[in-house]
Write a structure and sequence with these properties.
mainly alpha; Cytochrome Bc1 Complex, Chain D, domain 2; two-stranded antiparallel ribbon; two-stranded antiparallel sheet; 10 helices; 4 strands; about 45% helix; about 5% strand; globular; Cytochrome c1; transmembrane helix
């Protein structure tokens, strides 16, 4: 009897311990997380109003060419575009001679046919854009221990990609006084720059677009303001990440039309076949 009562007491306390553990786990899961500077001051990308948004959107070739110019004259100093081939620039409206000239102006890795040693040669249309830095060590050494990301797929690798790139390029600002008041330990460090559109609010990249006219557009093109240049290069990077987007949208629309037609046809067939049948 005593052993039975002892077992019951032990079972009771084991149950209480289990309930306490479960209650603590539920409280831990349901408890709101502690506020941080990132959760309170990080902002979602602003809408830039690109021509390719929506199911019927399409790329603006003139804008893509301006964006490629901004990439070439500003971004390519640090960021590679290694997943894009020179010949793909034909989608932007460049002709064969222009593409050959663009490729020839860049040196791509090669091998000396006589010695077998590493060498470089002039680019050809079939080549991809060469890497800016040969390895991560060189990239870190040239960029204050930061590695500039390859921009080939950046517009697909980030949420709301093109709008994110646009917002990031135009979002540099001084830290808000409220942030420093609430989170004094979040002061932007030396060599970093505050940007509310970046995940942790501070990034090593200095503002790449700083003044109107930093890139000179051709005649008949819009004024190269910081906002315009940011939109143009963001559109170009969207094309680089998804060059077949227009074809995908066209195919999708055709498939939807076909499915609607097939549905109507199937319904009419059903009505005709079962018209004189009792259900």
């Amino acid at each position: 009897m005593v052993r039975f009562l002892g077992a019951l007491v032990g079972l009771f306390f084991s149950g209480m311990l289990l309930l306490s553990f479960l209650w603590g786990a539920v409280a831990f899961v349901s408890a709101p997380p502690e506020p941080t500077a990132e959760t309170e001051f990080h902002e979602h990308p602003r809408k830039a109003g690109f021509s390719f948004t929506g199911p019927f959107g399409h790329y603006d070739r003139a804008q893509l060419q301006r964006g490629f110019q901004v990439y070439t004259e500003v971004c390519s100093a640090c960021h590679s575009l290694h997943q894009v081939a020179f010949r793909s620039l034909s989608d932007l409206g460049y002709n064969e001679a222009e593409i050959k000239a663009i490729a020839k102006a860049r040196q791509v890795p090669s091998i000396d046919p006589n010695t077998g040693e590493a060498a470089t040669r002039e680019g050809m249309p079939a080549d991809k854009f060469p890497l800016v830095y040969p390895n991560e060590v060189a990239a870190r050494a040239a960029n204050n221990n930061a590695i500039p990301p390859d921009l080939s797929l950046i517009a697909k690798a980030r949420h709301d990609g093109a709008n994110y790139v646009y917002s990031l390029l135009t979002g540099y600002q001084a830290q808000p006084a409220e942030l420093l008041r609430k989170f004094p330990d979040s002061k932007t460090g030396e060599g970093l720059h505050y940007n509310p559109y970046f995940a942790n609010l501070n990034l090593a990249m200095a503002p790449p677009l700083t003044a109107e006219g930093q890139v000179t557009y051709g005649e008949g093109q819009p004024r190269p303001t910081v906002d315009q240049m940011a939109k143009d290069v963001s559109a170009f990077l969207m094309w680089a990440a998804e060059p077949k987007m227009e074809a995908r949208k066209s195919t999708g629309i055709a498939v939807v039309i076909f499915l609607i037609f097939a549905t109507v046809l199937a319904y009419m067939s059903y009505q005709n076949i079962w018209a004189n049948k009792e259900h």
